[in-house]
Batch of 2 targets.
Target 1
Amino acid sequence: MTQKLLVSVTDITKNYRNKQIETKALKGVSLSIYEGEFVAITGPSGCGKSTLLSIMGLMDTASSGQYTISDIDTSHLKIDQRTMIRNKHIGFVFQSFNLIDDMSVFDNVALILEHRKTPKAEIKERVEHVLTQVDMLARQHYQPNQLSGGQQQRIAIARALVGNPDLILVDEPTGNLDTVNGDKVMALLEKLNHDGATIVMVTHDSRYVRCANRQIQLLDGEIITEKQLEVVA
């Protein structure tokens, strides 16, 4: 069965200008992501990995080129339209967790559904479901500062899942974790992918590239290699 095309990035460039200096972060990047894939984007610091992920997450705009997700061309959308599409189609997991300290675990995860004006009974059901998926239901009334780094990252993953996004973008998910917690988070991402989630992950850690089924390597804002990876049982 042919996989459905979910994401199309065509000739994307991104330039940053600082006074008289212009930096070219991305130089004509093109790639496709299909439903059910787990793609690792790798490369040295400053190669454009996070910039590319921010554009795919509609948190930044390209200087030129076309970005399509779920058959929606995002190239000329207004800010509120981009926010609406991001809310509906994209889940984002950050290296620094980005949880709200004065809100409970439950409320952190529920926030995106409240913005959609989802009925309270449905919010409760969906939040409890994703917290169960990440094995954190027992911590739903805790504050983020009462949790370990690994637990906070699990909550961040639950928050990304709760809106049933088409695409989950993961930016250095183990960067602030020790090896044990990093391994646990990566095992969770692998399980979610096996259950059908489409994941694009930026990582500098070569140990975790094996969790993906495709690797895209960037250097100086360009794709230099792209290869299928053997799935490790």
Target 2
Amino acid sequence: MSQSDQYSIEIFSLQKKFGDFEAVKDISFKIKKGEIFGILGPNGAGKTTTLNMILGLLHPTSGKIIIEGYDNSKENSKIKQLIGFMTQETVVDSYLTARDNLRIFARLYHIPENRIEEKVNHALDEANLISFADVAAGTFSGGMQRRLNLVKSMIQEPKILILDEPTTGLDIQSRVGMWEEIKRLRSKGITIILTTQYLEEADQLCDRIAIIDHGKVMAIGTASELKKTVAKGNLLSIKVNQDEREKTAKILKSKLKMEYEEKDDLFVLTNNIDMDMMIKVAEELRRNKIDVQTIGMHLPTMDDVFMKLTGSSIRDSTGDQKAGKNMAKMGLIGRR
């Protein structure tokens, strides 16, 4: 197998301008066949623009996209048959049954009439919706609708599947169920591109992750590789009273010579932290009469990576943070 044959998607020096605004700035990366490749970034980072260019919905200002050996700018009609796309909005006709929703989509993909029922029944089985095949989709739970949406995007059996925030708005059980579906699709050799607002989701699912900000690729690697860019060992998080933050910063920087980042209301120390170092820091703060509310060590997370690379949190609401914490408490997610 040649090096080029290892990749489903190859992106070279991709740029997209809207007037004077440069949404995507000279990005390049390659996605291996059969991997789950995550694309993370804050709102306005260029994720959606990049996906739309891969899908052929936007033409690049410059650069090249090669998909399964086809040049996206010249052979887009062939490429469209190779890609399935699931938007973050659940797009089903609530008045139609699950079966009829799938039939319509099969015809949109020009699947021969004599094969449509076979394809539809297979999709219903894959989504575990056989018992609900002739029930109006509008009566389904959010998780059931999302599963229907997923198999609808797979009706033409694509080699590549793009999932744009596939679990947004789902409850914890439905989200974990969707994770299992995504892993199953990957096991069948399908290449998956995943965007998500849940960093623990990228950590659990993605073989590699690209973090994009301001139209540029900030880093690409496995979750473990990206976490090592924050620290090779533990981090130390400290929370103090708001009116003591300035004094604390001076102690950490001048007296203790500690490197730190400010994340939300925490000081996060990135030196090689061990128990002795934590005790030393705590004693110095106490000696200077700093009221330490919390202090603790932890290994780097994807949230730490994202904060370091972009200077902000990916989550727009405390609701998403709470969902992640609840999942961890229930043992539904872990750390890698």
